């Protein structure tokens, strides 16, 4: 499955486009917006994690993963930012796995900031050995 760069996040996890297989997962990586001057993230943790995420989710047979930008630094720092309040994100980058549990879409795992750089933890979360 592809990396989805232009994904529109629904209002809740219940509306995420999970594949039909019973154990299927859909991944969302919450990152920062890029600075217009540089074309890169303003967050050094995001810049460090992107190569690892791109490699893991570009591999043959990898599950789908969508990138969602939480905004520029001033937007992100507001405590009422929708990604903080609705999606429970308090650090960037955050990689979240969603799966069906008892018929409902639920978060079933996450890696935050430097945890994404740990290849074994990343493979474990996405279910690849």
Automatic annotation (TrEMBL):
GO terms for molecular function: protein-disulfide reductase [NAD(P)H] activity. It comes from the Eukaryota. GO terms for cellular component: cytosol. Residues 24-101 form the Thioredoxin domain. Pfam families: TXD17-like_Trx (PF06110). InterPro entries: Thioredoxin-like_sf, TXNDC17-like, TXNDC17_dom. Belongs to the thioredoxin family. This is Thioredoxin domain-containing protein C21C3.12c. It comes from Colletotrichum sojae.
